[in-house]
Amino acid sequence: MTVTRTRILAGNWKMNHGPSQAARFFADFLPLVEPADGRSVVFFPPAVSFAAAREAVQGRPDVRLGVQNVHWEAGGAFTGELSVSMAADAGAELVLVGHSERRHVFGETIDETVRKTVAVLEGGLDPVLCVGETIDERRADRAEAVVVEQLGPVLAAVPVEHLARLVIAYEPVWAIGTGVTATPADAAAMHAAVRRTLEEVYGAGAAGQVPVLYGGSVKPENAAELMSQPGVDGVLVGGASLDPAGFAAIVRAAG
């Protein structure tokens, strides 16, 4: 049986676009993108811009919002952190988990990624789990092994009844913000490895529900070719999602 998965076009704004910039972005972006069946547009604005983004996308159910990070604890003395319940109360539907910048810049461990994923699911939001290898790991022919090592502990903690709410984003670390993109063939091969890992844990039927996105220097010029590859269900876009016209072009490339 063939499973049809919703296309997801996600923009991670990282530490860009304050509230006034966010409002201007959506004023320019929304008229360029008509709602379409089988497609979901997602934004991860900075926390301080979330309210402005939420106000701007009212009346557009095809546009969803998420937060870039959460803590796994429900509350307490964790200065600078957000809990899952706070994110949900603000209107978030999704949470980025395990992004390479959280892992490599802020030292997030696999155990912490697991805790966050579980907390997000238990809190009723959808985790977007990021996995990917560094350039040294790819050159050592360990790309697939590294991604499987990142996936394994998380999947072991996600019960099958929550699986349909999980999104996985394969982002080769060497392609994030560098202008260097994995070839379409590279992306297809790694997405196939992710899908095999899911099937080994959950079986083909359940695993087929999980969208797998590609991220890493996605641009209007390469988005259509990347999304035409087998197993690529959408994209997670960084820098190119900051430009309304450019990101609208990427969304339209999904069909």
From TrEMBL:
<dbReference type="InterPro" id="IPR035990">
    <property type="entry name" value="TIM_sf"/>
</dbReference>
<comment type="subunit">
    <text>Homodimer.</text>
</comment>
<protein>
    <recommendedName>
        <fullName>Triosephosphate isomerase</fullName>
        <ecNumber>5.3.1.1</ecNumber>
    </recommendedName>
</protein>
<dbReference type="GO" id="GO:0019563">
    <property type="term" value="P:glycerol catabolic process"/>
</dbReference>
<feature type="binding site">
    <location>
        <begin position="238"/>
        <end position="239"/>
    </location>
    <ligand>
        <name>substrate</name>
    </ligand>
</feature>
<dbReference type="GO" id="GO:0005829">
    <property type="term" value="C:cytosol"/>
</dbReference>
<feature type="binding site">
    <location>
        <position position="217"/>
    </location>
    <ligand>
        <name>substrate</name>
    </ligand>
</feature>
<keyword id="KW-0324">Glycolysis</keyword>
<comment type="pathway">
    <text>Carbohydrate degradation; glycolysis; D-glyceraldehyde 3-phosphate from glycerone phosphate: step 1/1.</text>
</comment>
<comment type="pathway">
    <text>Carbohydrate biosynthesis; gluconeogenesis.</text>
</comment>
<feature type="active site" description="Proton acceptor">
    <location>
        <position position="171"/>
    </location>
</feature>
<dbReference type="GO" id="GO:0046166">
    <property type="term" value="P:glyceraldehyde-3-phosphate biosynthetic process"/>
</dbReference>
<dbReference type="InterPro" id="IPR000652">
    <property type="entry name" value="Triosephosphate_isomerase"/>
</dbReference>
<keyword id="KW-0413">Isomerase</keyword>
<dbReference type="InterPro" id="IPR022896">
    <property type="entry name" value="TrioseP_Isoase_bac/euk"/>
</dbReference>
<keyword id="KW-0963">Cytoplasm</keyword>
<dbReference type="GO" id="GO:0006096">
    <property type="term" value="P:glycolytic process"/>
</dbReference>
<feature type="binding site">
    <location>
        <position position="177"/>
    </location>
    <ligand>
        <name>substrate</name>
    </ligand>
</feature>
<dbReference type="GO" id="GO:0006094">
    <property type="term" value="P:gluconeogenesis"/>
</dbReference>
<dbReference type="InterPro" id="IPR013785">
    <property type="entry name" value="Aldolase_TIM"/>
</dbReference>
<comment type="function">
    <text>Involved in the gluconeogenesis. Catalyzes stereospecifically the conversion of dihydroxyacetone phosphate (DHAP) to D-glyceraldehyde-3-phosphate (G3P).</text>
</comment>
<comment type="similarity">
    <text>Belongs to the triosephosphate isomerase family.</text>
</comment>
<feature type="active site" description="Electrophile">
    <location>
        <position position="99"/>
    </location>
</feature>
<keyword id="KW-0312">Gluconeogenesis</keyword>
<feature type="binding site">
    <location>
        <begin position="12"/>
        <end position="14"/>
    </location>
    <ligand>
        <name>substrate</name>
    </ligand>
</feature>
<dbReference type="InterPro" id="IPR020861">
    <property type="entry name" value="Triosephosphate_isomerase_AS"/>
</dbReference>
<dbReference type="GO" id="GO:0004807">
    <property type="term" value="F:triose-phosphate isomerase activity"/>
</dbReference>
<dbReference type="Pfam" id="PF00121">
    <property type="entry name" value="TIM"/>
</dbReference>
